Amino acid sequence: MIDGALLPFWLIALLWVGYGTLGFYFLFSRNLARKRRLLRPYVLGSGVLFLAVLIAMGFPPLMLLVALPFVVLVTFLNLRRGLRFCEQCGSTVWSIVPFMKPRHCSHCGAPLTTPAA
Ligand SMILES: [Zn+2]
To answer: What is the pLDDT of residue 80?
Structure first.
């Protein structure tokens, strides 16, 4: 256990990996309405959980203040730039080019116009 840590590392890692595993739902589900409804809380929850992990691991407050803008930026990018849901087939599409929005569905070829969340 790290000095100042609030929880044992194995529990923190288990929580983080478990939450990440939940994200596979967005990859494999074709239920567009449910994915749109759940993506925003999931991404916001991941940002909050990441900060909670840092706190639980015993990071000092100054490091948390340094990490906070990056967590906010990554959360924004995940919500607005990261991925899209295809209106036609319901699949999840993301661009492999950083900071580029996917323009077409890689499964059916339909144009992607609206952000995922
Ligand atoms: Zn499609």
So the answer is: 80
